[in-house]
Write a structure and sequence with these properties.
Layout (H helix, E strand, L loop, with lengths): L3 E3 L12 E2 L9 E6 L4 H11 L8 E5 L4 E5 L16 E10 L2 E2 H14 L3 E7 L5 H13 L12 E7 L2 E10 L1 H5 L11 H10 L7 E4 L6 H9 L4 E6 L2 H15 L8 E3 L4 E6 L11 E7 L12 H13 L2 E11 L2 H11 L5 E8 L2 E8 L4
Parallel strand pairs: 1-4, 2-7, 8-9, 11-12, 11-15, 12-14, 15-16
Antiparallel strand pairs: 3-5, 3-6, 4-5, 6-10, 9-10, 13-14, 16-18, 17-18
Length: 372
Amino acid sequence: MAKLRLDKSETKPSKPARETDESPASVAPGYLLQCAPGLAKVLQKELNFVGATSRDQKLFVKLQRNHDLIFANKVKSDLRLDEIRTAEMVLRCPAYGRFKISQRQLALMAETLTHLGPRRLVVSVAGQVFQRQDLARFLTKSLAERGYSFDDDVEDEVWMFCIDESWYFGLPVFKSRALRDERASEREGALPPTIAAAMAFASVPRAHDVVFDPCCGSGTLLAEFHRYAREAKLTGVDIDPHAVKIARKNMEILVGETSDTEGLIAGPHNETRLTVGDSRTQTAPEGLTLTLANLPFGVQFGDRASNPALYRDLIAASLNSATPEWRGMFLTSDTESFAQSVRDLAVTPPEVMFKVKIRGELATCYRIKGRS
């Protein structure tokens, strides 16, 4: 695993960025990856998994209020970044540095942007070293002097991220909205695809897995798991007929096949079944090896008063069909209800896989491995 350098230090205010001959120009492009707050370690592991970074590579990680950032000053193959599912945005950084911006770096920025065409500037500043408006004016003026002008009316962006004394000039090569574009529609309050991908990836997907989502909603978790293990057998159940209808459409797009009258979508190498029902009383698939569930929090769906019984019944339904290799991945912000249900069922103590903020609500992803 790559070594994380978690930078939480406070930096004293300094002079704003200015043009200088002393700051060295960036030799090779770096890559800045943004993910939901709490997912940095999962994203780092996925970078290793797809072969974009090496296990012993040191990565700069910055934990922010609204997102986590990972910077890699080199990647083994930038083409592998297309396989990343847990990142909200990936930026190629032709220039980056600390405190100052050199003339050579400004010339490189102008040359790169002139080649790409019209872009609008987005500046994100954290810390007290840089001021957002001052930096935006500085870049606009400096690049205009080198023949390039930003255009606020276009959709394509160029970003300037400033974190304390460090700055990163980045060109988006991928955004998570592309993940949403892969789907027909979403139910209101659906789990963001990047967080669903983090849960699926953290489960250690296997081709032979038999997967069950007892409250599948619009099918985001199962769809993301399918991308990691396309031969796995997937089953999703939800009490909401409208949600299941959406889930079927989304999975049909992903698999390239239509569902039959019983909700079965049979692909060339996989089988997905999405049905309407109550998972508390419905039998889970035989030979179950993995349960993935975004448990109702009681915010958009569910009820805090009834959650302990609901969680207990949903987990028990999986345990009744579980094989010895079964593991369960459960996401919830109602940690008290989850802890109570685990105690009632006498399962193995849950392991915290990650904590993440979803629309401002802190949620925890737990893994359990059967009865104790």
